[in-house]
Every structure is written in C-alpha cells, then in structure tokens.
Design goal:
There is one protein chain. With 320 residues, this protein is α+β, with helices and mostly antiparallel strands. Helix content is 43%, strand content 14%. Helix 4 runs antiparallel to helix 5 and helix 4 runs parallel beside helix 8. The longest helix is centred in the middle third of the chain and has 22 residues. It is globular, with a radius of gyration of 20 Å.
Amino acid sequence: MDAGAAPYATLSPDLILDAVAAAGHEPDGRMLALGSYENRVYQVGIEDAKPLIAKFYRPGRWSDAAIDEEHDFALELARAELPVVAPMVINGQTLLEHAGFRFSLYPRQGGRSPELESAENLAWMGRLLARIHGVGSRAAFHERGSIDVDTFVHEPSRAVLGSNLLPATLRPRYADLTERLADLLDQRLQACAPIRHIRLHGDCHRGNVLWTDAGPHFVDLDDARMGPAVQDLWMLASTPASLDSLLEGYAEFRDFDFAELALIEPLRIMRQVHWAGWVALRWHDPAFPLAFAHLGEARWWEEHCNDLATAIDLLRESVD
C-alpha cells in the first residue's frame, strides 16, 4: 500500500466489511461513508443488531501508542458517565488491525447539530466541558503532543512552503509573515504564563457535538492533545455573550482561569495556520483537492496572507 500517494487506495468496501467481520460482527452488506477527511469513517449495518461505526486511521499520522492514549481517555470519560462516544473493547483491545489498516469500532449514536444560540444549551455544554476537563486534569498525554507554536505554526508553515499550492510570488511574503507571527505568538504565550495544560478534546466545534432529546454528546477525539482549557470553549462561542453562557455553566463544576481568555485570539490564528498546512500536507489524498479546490487558487493564498498580516498587527498591539 502506497500510503504517501494514496493512503486509502486499497480500502475497498469488501476490505471494510471483512475487517468488521474479523472483529466478531456480521455485516449485513449495508455501508454508508460518513464525513471525514483525515480518517475514513463508515456506518456498517450488522445482522440482527444496531449498525456500528468503523473508523480507519490515516496511515502514518498517529502512532499506536498515541491512538491508545486517545482511546483510554475516551473510555475514562465514559466511565465517569460523561456523554462521549468511546471505542468498543474487543478481546481486550480498542485498536484493531486488518490487511494493513488500523481501525476501531464504535456504537452508532446519532443526533442533530446543536443549537448553540440558546444560553441554556451553552451553559449545559459548559457544565459538560468542565466535567471533561476535571477528568482530563487527572493525568497527562505523553504521546499526543500539545497545542503549541511549533505544532500549530512552524510545522504547518513548512508544509505549505514545501507544497505546490502556494504561488511562487507569495512564498517570500508567506515565509516572512509566518516567522513574524510565530515570534509574536511565543511572546503572547510567555506573557500569559503560567497556563496549566490538561488533556483536551482538542477540536471542540459544533460539528463534533451531536444533540438528542437527552442532550449533547461529544464525538471524535482524534485531535485530543494537551492544552489550555479555553481551547475547548472558544470554538463553541460565536459572541462574547455566548462565551459568558458557556463559562457560567463551566463554573458550576470547575474553576476557570480567566487569564486564558487572552489566549483566544492566538489560538484562533494558530488554528488557521494549522488548517492551511494540514490541507497542503494532505493534497496528495484525492479527497482533498475535491473538497478544498479553492486552495488551488492564488486568490485564496493572497487572502490568507492578508489575514496573517492582520493577525500580526493585532498581536503586536496586545504585546506592546
């Protein structure tokens, strides 16, 4: 399997069904691809049982030990009766292998997109995140890394500069902007220190929350890392008032360090740089040019550079 050129080229429907069968479940032949770019995720029908979710991990992204840490965290949260979809334990393992692919199985838990315009719903989310962070603060990840400038700015900017997506005319400007941005971000993070890092969901936006009549549940801990608690809050809050509602609920179960609010803008721009680098790094995967065709246009990179320049001005003002 040529994981570099086309990591999922041999992940055929038959292989997926065979993998689920090898894990002890009898597929009924029904299969539905679910939205996922980094990994491949499928709903698989099971004979005389509820469907399962099969998640096939991108080759080379996480080590086995890092995936095990994610799974252990999810199981720890589930044991604490938190609404997190955790992997199934099969013969004492959650990380399985079939025909060269690593995968895991999950119970299917549906739901709808959360309505986060409601102060009541936001407070509910805040209470749950506080409890998740309470569990997350009990131990540390050792294999999954942290939300930091190296991982979220230096590495992705190198991926962009090493790709053909960035127009040659913009390369000097992009390199200069990301270098200056990294320096300013380092200064901001140092100014906010010490900030406690805990185990986080890491990618806590509304797309990773499903809501049912019983309330919300969290899915997809694939980006779980060490980081500040505010990382799991700011993406759910579209306005200052919504952030206040989240924090109101959060405070019912856990103290929040309000010094972390100064990290929201740095985290926001770090996410933007990381996202562009992620797409550049994955451009060889046929799914990415189809989904993100606009990144193949010079205009998008011009706007991205303009956004970085604006962020630098804002950070410089705050540092000064």
